[in-house]
Amino acid sequence: MPLTTSSTREIPETGMIPRHIAIIMDGNGRWAKKRFMPRVAGHKRGVETVRTAIKACVDRGVEYLTLFAFSSENWRRPADEVTFLMQLFITVLEQEVVKLHENGIRFKVIGDLSKFEPKIVEFIRNGETLTANNTRFTLTIAANYGGRWDIMQAVHRMLEQHPELAACFEEKDLMQYFSLNYAPEPDLFIRTGGEKRISNFLLWQLAYTELYFTDTLWPDFDTRALNLAIQSYQQRERRFGRTSEQLQIAPSANELREIATERMAKFQ
Ligand code: IPE
Ligand code: IPE
Ligand code: MG
């Protein structure tokens, strides 16, 4: 049964550590350019940052991490860069999936896989199957993903299975068909690399997510930088349409803030 809690309606119960962090990992090319290296060197270095980010999130008690690795628009890049990224994806899948499994991490990929080589799709499916029962942490890679594609494929799949809904359907009917139907909506969105846009990432799911933009380029986004993002998140008041006063009467809000501050202090 997919988990389809809508955080646009409910105040998250988990306190001040975000349950789900979604990241646009941007700035690899500029990181390399600054060092007079080819853009692809930045992508390679970016994979190391992914490892660091996963570990930091697991340590802090984050439950879901969703990383934008390749957008549906990234096919527009020069052919040799696209080829390099595909090869890097294969190498990472080959080397890392078993390690994820050993660490109790569930691995998922969202996006339109029909454009990928069969070999990549096979690696992805095998990895997902191998790690399917891991419950400690869920890592989702968005590959050939687009938020508009996701909404469209959800509508198509819903109507395929339930043609009677064509006349009338509700949010809850559609939500179970989104690619991220197994995860709560992201609490914290991070974009590295200085751009302040969503670039067709999780359009539906980011409706009430706290947004954090940093100029830090993805290969430089270390544990300290992640801590800063979480600390910024902890200063936010998530109202979901309510007034500030309504939130103050919830007795646990301040307590949760103190607990979270203590927990984060361990990682300073
Ligand atoms: C993000 O870094 C990685 C991918 C989109 C695959 P970029 O490659 O976009 O790096 P910049 O933005 O050009 O620096
Ligand atoms: C967004 O980065 C996609 C990924 C990080 C995978 P881009 O660098 O492709 O975004 P735009 O084109 O600058 O918006
Ligand atoms: Mg970019």
Question: What is the topology?
Answer:
Elements (H helix, E strand, L loop, with lengths): L19 E5 L3 H7 L4 H22 L3 E8 L7 H24 L2 E6 L7 H14 L5 E9 L1 H15 L9 H5 L12 E4 L18 E4 L9 H12 L9 H5 L3 H14 L3
Helix pairs in contact: 1-2, 2-3, 3-4
Protein name: Isoprenyl transferase
Enzyme class: transferase
Subunit structure: Homodimer.
Task: Supply the key terms.
268 residues; alpha/beta; Undecaprenyl pyrophosphate synthetase; 6-stranded parallel sheet; globular; disordered N terminus; binds 3-methylbut-3-enyl trihydrogen diphosphate; binds magnesium ion
Write up this protein:
The chain has 268 residues and is α/β, with parallel strands linked by helices. It has a single domain, classed as Decaprenyl diphosphate synthase-like (Undecaprenyl pyrophosphate synthetase), CATH 3.40.1180. It has 9 helices and 6 strands; from the N terminus they run E-H-H-E-H-E-H-E-H-H-E-E-H-H-H. The chain has a 6-stranded parallel beta sheet, sandwiched between helices. Helix 1 crosses helix 2 (39-60) and helix 3 (79-102) runs parallel beside helix 4 (118-131). It is globular, with a radius of gyration of 19 Å. The N and C termini lie far apart (38 Å). Mg(2+) binds at residues 26, 210. Belongs to the UPP synthase family. Its EC number is 2.5.1.-.
